[in-house]
Amino acid sequence: MKKTALGLYTGFAILAVLFIIVLATGYWKRFFYPEEPEETKARVITVQEANSISSEELTGQIAWEDNLDIKMPLQEGEMVIAVLNKVSEEGFSEEQFVVYRTSEAGSPVYITFFSYDERTRDYRRMWDEPTAATRPETITLFSQDLIGDRNNCIIVTGMNSSNEHTITVFRLYQNQNYRKIAELQIDGSILIQETARSLAYQQGITTGQSYNIAAYSYDSLSANILDQIETIYSYNASAGRYEQTRLTRIPGSQVEQRRIRELLSGTPGVFEQFINDLWYYISPQGTIDTRQFLYFDPIGREIIFYGDEAQQVFEWQSSAATRYGLYIRSRNISINTLLRFIDIELETLDSIRLRVNEDVKLRITANTTWDGTYRRASTGNTQNSVSRLNPYIDAVFDSSWGRIQFSLSGHYSINSASSVRNGRYLFYSVNDYELLELRPEGAASDVRMVYSTEYVAGVVILSRVRLGTTGVFDLLEPPVTLTPVNTE
Q1: Would 388 be classed as within a structural domain?
Q2: What is the DSSP letter of 220?
Q3: 471 φ, ψ to 5°?
Q4: Residue closest to 216 by CA, chosen among 60, 113, 324
Q5: What local confidence, expressed as pLDDT, does residue 42 receive?
Q6: Is residue 433 part of a domain?
Q7: What is the pLDDT of residue 255?
Q8: In what order do the strands lie in the sheet with 94-101?
């Protein structure tokens, strides 16, 4: 009797283990749901693995450093560019939009949609659509309620092979069906014109006003290169798409046209060298704000943003010539997930207009902090006492550190009896302070040493300072005297 009971217990234990194995492996689904033909799941191809792409296609291509986590692998030859996650309408799972490119030369950038299938308990690739963009390094993917019904549209912006700005907009309809409601390709710039929406909209009581899309293109009928045509596209609810509603000619500044043609010729490096300078923000009232400025360094491949008494340094990753200037992709050197796409337009020979889109790889919102007009600092139009230091100099000094040499390339070297130290430097100004920043190379590359400079009897006195949110603070360290060396 005991043997029989022991056998029963043993049999029940074995059946329980087998039942758990069946549940864990998912074999039970084959009895309840007939399987559809399984698609081949290829590995994700990175840019470095795409040997089939020509060298011309990879020119200016960004090596995508981010680990873009996608719900399911793409097909062979498809390379991930950007990913956007959103909670499903039911709120039980996460859906995903993926922008990718193929290995085919000159092919458009595509977008695909992954949705969770409750029946198969797995993600499925619902649809694929081409966008108007072809240059992966210029792509921005985000969502925004353009229509005003609190149903976010999916928006892909970028540039094509003709260096035109592009925008492609998708809107959700029934049964996870996204339809293209706008697609533009313009030789100027494209903006989403946001307008204030009512409190009732914010509280979810009623719908809001639709946003217009504004496109600025070259006026082919004008002799002035800087003249533009503004075309407004508005959402047509009955047609379910954006349509042109208004066209306006905008006169540009009357400046010397030959120099403008040189700058906007599209010749590599010409416009980059033109903006190689310090630029101050111009307020809507037309006054210069020396508390907010930009410094473009095409040689060192850096862009320095200074505002609200805080300095941000971005790596200049890539740039593309546009009809009116330059489009730059940059990455914050401290927060590598923070990207800034900078659209620069020539306004006059001493002023530029910026439109900045920020992508933090999180929930994306419009960032207009840096948008606006900037004037070159060296024009002598500033109203306050601002330093006229050149960012880079060609000079040699003796100091307690050793002999320090500054070169026009933005590099410095300090030669002492025991060592040679190298790095990068920059002269700039903050309010009434003239500053020198040194950034050593090597293990200490993250160290940023900032000094105030004072000129006394032909020598330069450096005092170590710290830049804070409320100003410049002297660290009270012993000063360093730089004595010029005549190298002739």
Answers
A1: no
A2: T
A3: 145, -165
A4: 324
A5: 30
A6: yes
A7: 66
A8: 79-87, 94-101, 110-117, 122-130
Residue 381 neighbours by CB under 8 Å, 6+ apart: 288, 350, 375
C-beta contacts of 180-186 below 8 A and 24+ residues apart: 180/129, 180/241, 181/153, 181/235, 181/240, 181/241, 181/242, 182/213, 182/233, 182/241, 182/242, 183/131, 183/132, 184/132, 184/213, 184/215, 184/233, 185/132, 185/160, 186/215, 186/216, 186/217, 186/231
Token pair, residue 217, equals 């293109």
pLDDT at residue 359 is higher than 50: yes
Tokens describing residue 305? 């943003």
Q: What is the pLDDT of residues 316-350, one digit of tens each?
A: 999 888 888 999 999 998 888 788 999 999 988 88
Name the more confident of 358 and 66.
358
Domain that holds residue 24: 2-32
Nearest-angstrom CA–CA distance, 386 and 36: 71
For residue 38, give every residue at least 6 positions away whose Cβ sits within 8 Å of its Cβ, in sequence order, or none. Answer: none
CB environment 195-223: b (16+ within 10 A), e (fewer):
eeeeeebeeeeebbebbbbbbbbbbeeee
List, in sequence order, every residue forming a beta bridge with 454; answer none if it has no partner.
461
pTM above 0.85, yes or no: no
Amino acid at 199: L
Pair 261, 245 in one domain: no
Residues contacting residue 51 through CB under 8 Å, at least 6 positions apart: none
Residue 59 has pLDDT above 50, yes or no: no
Asked whether residue 385 is domain-assigned, the answer is no
- Residue 352 near residue 345, CB atoms below 8 Å: yes
Q: How far from chain centre, in Å, is Cα 138?
A: 8
Q: Is residue 387 part of a domain?
A: no
Q: What is the pLDDT of residues 25-57, one digit of tens each?
A: 444 444 444 444 333 333 222 222 333 333 333
Domain count, the chain: 4
- Tokens linked to 57: 């296609």
